[in-house]
Amino acid sequence: MRLHGYIPSSVTWRVRIALALKGVEVETLLHDLPQDGPRNLGHVSLNPQGLMPILELPEGGSLTQSLAIVEWLEEMWPSPPLLPPEPAQRARMRAFTLAIACETQPLHAAGVLARLRAAGLTEGQVQGWARHAISEGLEACEGLLADSPGPFCFGARVSLADVFLVPQLYAARRFGVQLAFPRLLSAEAASMTLPAFRDTMPETPDAA
Ligand SMILES: N[C@@H](CCC(=O)N[C@@H](CS)C(=O)NCC(=O)O)C(=O)O
Prior knowledge:
Blueprint: E1 2-7, H1 10-22, E2 27-32, E3 54-56, E4 62-64, H2 66-76, H3 87-101, H4 110-118, H5 123-144, H6 160-174, H7 182-191, H8 195-198
Parallel strand pairs: 1-2
Antiparallel strand pairs: 1-3, 3-4
Helix pairs in contact: 1-2, 1-6, 3-5, 3-6, 5-6, 6-7
InterPro entries: Glutathione-S-Trfase_C-like, Glutathione-S-Trfase_C_sf, Glutathione_S-Trfase, Glutathione_S-Trfase_N, GST_Zeta, GST_Zeta_C, Thioredoxin-like_sf
Protein name: Maleylacetoacetate isomerase
Pfam families: GST_C_2, GST_N_2
């Protein structure tokens, strides 16, 4: 299998963490994230959206959308599990993950920020937009974990929620967001004790 991703990209990092947690080896091709240009149309044959990550399958064809890729990994390699067995808890975990994947990261994606610049916003306004979107998203995530025990997002085991949270906190720091979210930060600290998170960080030389 071959993973195409951007560097630095919180979204690509999600998939790399999940692959590492599952112990699945892939060839990884990291491309420079286009900051100001249009979507990389060189990849539309693999993903008509022109977005990464993209996972090329050995039998042909490719998978896109980080959540769909991670859920596919969960189905193909169920151990160690990233989702709990109990349906309501699975739904809560997916809700947390979607709060990041659908309602936080898309608001500060490079393509969206490029559109805001093209519409005439100053760089200060663009950065302020991104910080606001991330703060609001993370504040909601902090609330979603209010009744959930640690040390990870949803208890004693690392899960899908941590796979999405940790890269989002990384993106938050890149934009200079004030991180006053103790529950999220403690889940991040627990996750960062695991090599699957540490060894795939976007700054890690062999992650480049
Ligand atoms: N919802 C998508 C988001 C993918 C995404 O935003 N990818 C970014 C890299 S982090 C991208 O390809 N950006 C290029 C662009 O917007 O032109 C997923 O979870 O895979």
